[in-house]
Amino acid sequence: MKDESCVVNDKMVPFATFYIIIFLIGMAGSLVALWAFIHSRSVKKCMNVYLINLLTSDFLLTLALPVKIAVDFGVESQRLTIFHCQVSSPLIYISMYASIIFLAFVSVQRYVQITQSSKLFRLQEVGFALVMSAVVWLLVLFINVPNMAIPIKDKISNSTLITCKDIKQDVGKHWHTLSVFLGMAIFMNASVAVLMSNGLVLKQFWGKRGGDPQEQATAHHATVNIAMVTVAYVVCFVPYHAVRMPYTFTQNEIITDCASAMGGRNWVKATVLCKTGAQLVNATGSELDKFIGSLNYGLFHGQGLKQCGLGGRPFSFSFFPDLVDVIPASLHVSVIIFCAVLILFSSLCSAFFMYNAFGNPYETLHGPLGLYLWNLISCLCSCLILILYASEVKLHRLSEKIANYKESTFVYKTYSEAFDCSFWLIFIVFLVHGLNILLIRLAGIQFPFQEAKESDANTGAADLMY
Q1: Helix (H, G, I), strand (E, B), or coil: what is residue 267?
Q2: Which of 125, 170, 359, 465 would suit a FRET pair with 263, their CA atoms being 20 to 30 Å apart?
């Protein structure tokens, strides 16, 4: 049987192509943002502090990408790899998590502006923003600078195909794992702040949809901007963090089994027929069983048993990087991304449910935001997962492509195929969120609950755009 250890692939040329696009767009976007920021007069001073720091962190991230691109393209230079592991890679993490935190601060500051609560007045002071910015930079530096400073191994293999794991000492590997844990904690807390703050601001704007036409147009413009920022945050950071922890565990050999690292194989169960062998001996009936093997797989990996009349041949595989050239990779990656988004927004639905249970159920259930919005997004994501994955399996004959991968002697074809429990779990999630939407829609009747008081804030929609 093939070795079941989980192989870490650090040479991903397709991702390097995306990094080039990100680098070009990021550099142009940073320059445009700098120009717009210099000429803007509508942003409050406290917001200025956070935006300057956000722009700085984004620019540093862009500058660190060329080395990452060169390494992922497979430039055979040991010095370049060492420089990437000790300098550019930690710089990427410093910039990324600083950007995430400052995005959270911007979102919270926007919500504070619209509430105008006297209890939150100190949060709008420039001095407070400066102190918090300094704390953020000190925090991300404290987490990631040791990855630069901890000495590497004295003796490094002369091979050019080394990875960061190969040059780190044990203490460096342990600190890297700890820094990933801390980064994940930062991301989770920042995500709650971003999504909750933006959701509450969007809820406020929805209440202004019937006001003055000019104010309504401004509110609509601000709503679109905030929604775009929220979607961009989810698309940019959620898929990465969904695989960051298992990748680090396998990289440091904390987890050696791909099944533990990447989830189960219970998406599809299939049987494959050895067409070449069956035709050769004209097998029928019970004799055909000797030529039928099994196959089960998920989104990342799978295993099976091939039979061609001479006994079984167990095998295992991973989609990345083994099968990336034979499967519809863009379709498969889209399914994975939508799964990550579904997990995030399903969790958010649970948080809003608890908020409604102990807060003011009438106000949130009666409006289209809150539970309504997150359930709708989750329902759409689960529906897209079902459609895309079913089309990948059925229309692109995924099981046959897997069975015939690197097979030069025999030809296999799908004998039977059925979706397994993980696929149907997504279907159940789709039904649950759809039922929630229906119940929320039917909840538009007058309940005997006291409505929350309208905010006395005088902040307009124009103050909340950036």
Answers
A1: coil
A2: 170
